[in-house]
Every structure is written in C-alpha cells, then in structure tokens.
Amino acid sequence: MLEISNLHVIFNKGTVNEKHALKGVDLKLEEGDFVTVIGGNGAGKSTLLNSIAGTFPVESGSIVLDGVELTKMPDYKRAKYVSRVFQDPLIGTAGNMSIEENLALAARRGKRRTLRWYTNNEERAKFKELLAEFDLGLEDRMMQKVGTLSGGQRQAITLLMASLASPKLLLLDEHTAALDPKTAKKVLALTEKIAKDNNLTVLMITHNMSDAIKYGNKLIMMNEGKIAFSCEGEEKVDLTIPFLMEKFEKTVGEALGGDKLLLG
Amino acid sequence: MFQGLINALPGGISQGLMWAILALGVYVTYKILDFADLTVDGSLATGGCVAIVLTAAKVHPILAIIVAFFAGALAGIITALLNTKLKIPAILSGILTMSALFSINKIILGKRANVSASPKLTIIGRLANLFGMSSSGLDRNILTIGLCVILLAGIIAFLYWFFGTEWGSSIRATGNNQTMATAQGINTDRAKIIALAMSNGLAALSGAVISQYQFSGDVNMASGTIVIGLASVVIGQLVVGERGSFWVRLVGVVLGSLIYRLIFALAVQIGLDPDNLKLISSIIIVIALCIPTIKQKFFSNHKVGGEKNNA
Ligand SMILES: Nc1ncnc2c1ncn2[C@@H]1O[C@H](COP(=O)(O)OP(=O)(O)O)[C@@H](O)[C@H]1O
Ligand SMILES: [Mg+2]
C-alpha cells in the first residue's frame, strides 16, 4: 500500500551545510503493517517520516500510497491520507483550543471545511465515547483547553486525533520519548489498540530497542540515510536485543555508544 | 479641567467607537492569527480615502463604506500573498503593502492633499436628515455613537459566529499551532489570507466611518494606526482578562479602545503637547503589556511548574 522508491533528500543543497539525509530509500508496506524504525541519531529516521508527510520537497524518488502519488502533493493535502504524532506533545495539539475543538479539527482532516458550526451533538457524543475508552477521565473535560493537560494526556489526544477521519498511514516519531516510562507504556498500549481498531498501517520511530522488538510485525534499521537492515514475520518475532546490537555495530562499524540507541 | 473633560467626552466616545472597529480587526490578526500585521497603517487610510472620494462623487455613503471595506480586504490579501506565496516575513510584508498603499491612497485622492465631502452627502448628514437632527456639534457625536454601536454589535456577532465555524476554527488553529494545523489538513496559507482580508477590511471600514465623521479624508489619517489598535487590544485584555467567553473578549477590545481615548483626552486636558501624543501612545502600550508580566513576577511565586499554554 505504501511504496517508496529510490528516495533522496538533500538539505541546503549547494551550500557548505549540504546534507544528503536520505540516500536512496526503498520501502514497501502492506496494509495493516506495523513497522518499527530504529537507528542512531541523524540516521535519517525523522527525515523519512517528514518526507512521507510532505514537510519538505524531496530531491528525487517517489512516494505512492494506495495508488495515490504523494511525492509532489502539498503537506496539508497529504494529511487526508497520512496522520502523525510528534515527539513533542505540544506540537500535535492546539493548546489554546479545547479538547473538543481539537478533535473536531482532526475529524475534518481531508474533508472540505464549511461555514457550519465546528462540531455537532452527534459528533460530541462520539468523541466522548472514544475518550472514555482511553480511561483517562478526559470525557468529562471536553471543553477544557488542551494546554492545561499533561504531556501524556496531550499525546493520547493527539493519538486519538490521528485515528479520526480514517487515515491510511500513521506516522509516529518517537512519540513516547518525552513521557515518563509509565505514561510511555500507556501511550504505547493505546497506539497498538488504535492501530488495530482502525486497521492502520503504522511507521513508528523509537529509540527503545525492546519496544522496537515488542511492537509491530516489521522492523527497519536506518543508518546514514539508508535502510541498513530490515526484517519481518518470524524473523521479527525471534529478534533479541543482543542480535540487534550486533547488527547495529556491524552496519555502523562502531560499538553502540551511550545515547546512540537506547536499550530500554 | 474636569469641565473640559466632560466637554471632550462625546467626541472622545465617538473616536473610541470608530477606532474600535479597527481594534477588532487588529485583534483578529494579532491575537487570533498571531500575525503582526502592519498593513492597517495603510488600509485604514485607504478605507477613508475610498469612502470620502465616492461620497463626494455622490455615491450613496453606505455603498461607499462597503466598497471601502473591500478595498481594505484586498490590501490584506496582498500582504497575505507576499507572506505565504513569496515567503516574505510577516512584518516586512505588512510594511511593503502599507508603504505601497501610501502612494495608492494619493492616487485615490487624485493627488489632492485631502478630499472633503459636503456634510449632507455623508452618512452622518443623511442620518441627521432622517432623524431631524443637526450634523454638527453634539448631534453629530450622538449619531456617530449610534451608528458605531450598531456596526460594532454586528461585527462582534459576525466574528463570534465566524470563529465558531469550521473555517473560523481552522484559522484559530493556524494562529495557535501551525504545525498542528497543517497536520490536520488545514491550508494555513488560505487561513492567513482570509484572516488578513477580514482584519484589513475592518481597518478600512473604520477609516471609512472616520472619514464620514470628519467629512474629509487624507493620506495621513492612518499614521500610527497599528499602535492605536494594539493599545486597545492590550488594554481590553487587561480589563476583561483572557479567560472569558470569546464575545466578552471582543467587547473588551471595544472597551479598550474607549479607555485609550479617555486616557488620551485626559493627557490633553492636563496640558500635554499634542505633538507628544505618539510618545504617550507607546508608553500606554508598554505599561499595558507590562502589567501581566509584573503581576506574574510578584504574585505567582508560589505556583510551581505552570505550563505555558501558547504552544
Ligand atoms: N531541516 C533540516 N535542515 C538541514 N538538515 C537537516 C534537517 N533535518 C534533518 N537534517 C539533518 O539530516 C540528518 C538526518 O536527520 P534526522 O532524520 O532528523 O535523523 P534521526 O534519524 O535522528 O531522526 C541529520 O544530519 C540532520 O542534522
Ligand atoms: Mg529524529
């Protein structure tokens, strides 16, 4: 369903700061795939997700989602097919707007916005129901400004928002990295539930190796703008941290240093 | 001095209400869209010039005011296009349009320093005629106040409705968190174009009403507009706070504009040189902007880790 071929991204081309961040990435995903993405700092993981979302133009290559050519589509139009959750909980939601307003904005992703009122009673009831499933007590605080919530609550709302309006692809960029371990665990469980309930295809960047092994049916390891290693199915189930570490050391050609890749 | 202030009151209220229309426009860009738009320094005069030239040419003043609104909206759209399509920074985009408008306003006036219309042709003259009142003195102020109250009520009702719609909510999201807005499929360029058109349309409407009140318009009638608009917004915020319902905050902007005029009238009454009025305006804004910071410094030492809401 997602087909990325020979994708190149070059930042600041022709300047001293030129950075060839993606060097020919090929990636093919099936519907319902849950892919975890690992790799050292600066490997190009975020760049890969950002180019799928359309944050910046790519140098060459193509991105096709369910037969729709995304490569040159502006980012706000791609949002119809691609939803995302960022690492910083402040980025995914509008802090000055209420929970209800945020959800209503997300429910209209990819749809024509009109001069009708921003939401309606039927929709409110649906939001309430969905929030209640999260078990965070937010269903009774729909009119509260999102800015007054904790990082974990904001991230949970962003996740719910990302699941509305039936997107095809969900992009998660270290979306639990800013949370404390307990909250991170909760949000990951929610992520899995939402992906399953909505049959979403997911690309999840994580710096936590055990999460990368635990979640999803495929794994890719990136290094220097390329996919250095990938595995799926049985092979993915049998993955162990020592094996991944060895793989990593081999591809990077150096021992796994301090903060390069967290073991978790 | 007290008597002088009383005498200055009707005129001051008229001014306060006419400029409140501009202040609501500034609120849309400055507070809702979070876009520091300096175009209003030109578009208010454009509104005034267009309205007075048309009125002098015997066009019905209501039509003249409507045309003025759209002329201002067009100016706002140009600033928005400079910013979104040509990627010129917001402040510079506004300055460029504002500066260009100075020349355009002169062209609209036909190279005259200012244009006057016979009072009976203006909206004030027509209303005076309708109600058997005079178009000068206290009557003129009463008519202006009445006209502005109706206009402001309509504008506030419109803004309250509009910013509650799907479109309005998208514009608020764009102003609050552009990354989020884009991720939710909002065309943020379009949001900016609509908000800037609306804001500068209101600035021009304000200028149009002012020209009807003065029975004349000139290219300099808008100098310092942005400062007056900002002062009203900031004072209004101090008066009603930031937490209230949206329409309360909009009414607060109108109150801010009135209070600003009152402070102004007071400053003139105590004998401050009118040449120093711009200095006074800036000082008023600095004080108004400082008060929340000072309050926070002195009163919130006990609050720990309060999250900032402006993501
Ligand atoms: N917008 C940008 N402009 C310039 N360089 C960038 C930009 N975004 C990322 N880079 C560079 O591209 C490389 C890959 O970055 P990124 O994809 O963020 O890595 P990570 O795998 O840690 O997410 C890094 O060297 C980074 O400095
Ligand atoms: Mg990254």
Note down, in words, how this protein is organized.
The complex is a heterodimer of chains A (264) and B (311). Chain A has 9 helices and 10 strands. Chain A is an alpha/beta fold. Chain A has a domain of 172 residues: Rossmann fold, CATH 3.40.50. In chain A, the strands form 2 sheets. A 6-stranded mixed β-sheet of chain A has the order 6-7-8-3-9-10, sandwiched between helices. With 311 residues, chain B is mostly helical. The longest helix of chain B has 32 residues. Chain B starts with a helix and ends in a 12-residue tail after the last helix. The relative contact order of chain B is 0.18. The C terminus of chain B is likely disordered. Chains A and B meet through helix 2 and helix 3 of A and helix 7 and helix 8 of B. Adenosine-5'-diphosphate (ADP) binds next to strand 2 and helix 1 of chain A. The site of magnesium ion has 2 residues of chain A, from helix 1.
**Total individual domains of chain B:** 1
CATH architecture type of chain B? Orthogonal Bundle
H/E element string of chain B? HHHHEHHHHHEHHH
How would you sum up the global shape of chain B? Answer: globular
Question: Secondary-structure element sequence of chain A?
Answer: EEEHEEHEHHHEHEHEEHH
Distance between the termini of chain B: 48 Å
Protein topology:
The complex is a heterodimer of chains A (264) and B (311).
Chain A lengths: L1 E10 L7 E11 L4 E6 L5 H9 L6 E6 L2 E2 L5 H4 L3 E4 L13 H9 L13 H14 L16 H13 L5 E5 L7 H17 L3 E5 L3 H6 L3 E6 L2 E7 H5 L3 H12 L12
Helix pairs in contact in A: 3-5, 5-6
Chain B lengths: L1 H32 L6 H17 L4 H24 L5 H19 L5 E3 L6 H9 L5 H26 L3 H11 L1 H6 L4 H27 L1 E3 L6 H16 L5 H24 L7 H23 L12
Antiparallel strand pairs in B: 1-2
Helix pairs in contact in B: 1-6, 1-9, 1-10, 1-11, 2-3, 2-4, 2-9, 3-4, 3-9, 5-6, 6-11, 7-9, 10-11, 10-12
Bound molecules: adenosine-5'-diphosphate (ADP) and magnesium ion.
Adenosine-5'-diphosphate binds next to β2 and α1 of chain A.
